[in-house]
Amino acid sequence: MSDILDELHWRGLVAQTTDEAALRDALAAGPITAYCGFDPTAPSLHFGNLVQLVVLRHLQRAGHRVICLVGGSTGLIGDPRPTAERVLKSKEQTAAWVGRIQDLVRPFLDFDGSDPACAHPAVMVNNLDWTAPMSALDFLRDVGKHFRVNAMIKKDAIATRLASDEGISYTEFSYQLLQGLDYLELFRSYGCTLQTGGNDQWGNLTAGSDLIHRVEGASVHLLTTPLVTDSQGVKFGKSEGNAIWLSADMTSPYAFYQYFLNVEDASVVKLVKIFTDRTRDEVAELERLVAQEPFRRAAQRLLAADITTLVHGAPATAAVQAASEAIFGKGDLGALDERTWRDACAELPHGAVPAGASVVEALVATGLAESRNAARRLLGEGGVSVNNVKVTDPERALGADDFVHGYAALLRRGRKAQAAALRA
Q1: pTM to 2 decimals?
Q2: Pick from 214, 325, 201, 314: which is nearest to 261 by CA?
Q3: How far apart are CA 324 and CA 336, in angstroms?
Q4: Do the beta carbons of residue 187 and residue 216 sit within 8 Å?
């Protein structure tokens, strides 16, 4: 337990703490109980939430107790954004998303005591359980009494919204009271003395530690993680404006794997340290390979494999690796399972073609050729393949056997450019 804080620092997982010396002593004397909250503002967690799950995972494996809170009540309110008011979700939708997120979180932590590396099973809680029975009067008297409005309006998101034309509703303004109540409840019920979260959540986190100090006269701890950005300061986890989700039905394992396979050299070692269990010696070797043999992309391959296995499991990783190899000309497309093949095609440029269409028509439909004449020239130059087999005949038609799983054929122009011809 004594070196877990050093490990988190080395992995780049510490941005701020309330009192690092006191936290270090508490961790060394542990076990302590720590928690992190996840709000059901969408039907899935996203890449940014994975950082917090990794922190809880490290703490649990270091012998500490961890609590995963999915916010059935805070999800009904919504954490204030600096830009605009959130659209409130119905109680039914929020409850459904709570269930989805609970199911999504379970594989990351040991909840049943089956992992010998974990001394204490994790606990799953829903803050609706203690918020719903509380009356408005009790909430205002027992919780609201301990908050000072002048301090609340100084928090970044609140201050930004107050300065805008739209302002902020009392509903969202009260969010930090609800989050503070969570920490107080977990302190009382489980002896929880550490809350973790992203660095942009510092204001909400201090609401809880301050409330505990005022009500119980106790000092508790906070730990935040840095926002994960690339070398240009842009948040990871965004792809053409869409979040990289942890649920397979929102971001496929194939798309997830490809995202990390294409991470820039300047960021890949940092991500390996954060999201994998690789040792310091292994990371040092990856740093050497990135510096001396970047063309091998060894660090990216390891990162993509490890993080996909963490999120989706080893069988899914094996499937997407096989698909990646096959699509880039080194494997058997027919050996891929149908779901992985469809997921892979979704990430390629694609176009629909009717049964019996020629390769020339397919090249144009998928955008690999600007015109039929251009497609014929490519075929004549020997630069076209169908399902990794070179094609030169401009009259060659796509038969039923060319559409893998009856769905799509892989077209390639040159070594790198490829697209999927979807069967219309």
Answers
A1: 0.91
A2: 325
A3: 10
A4: yes
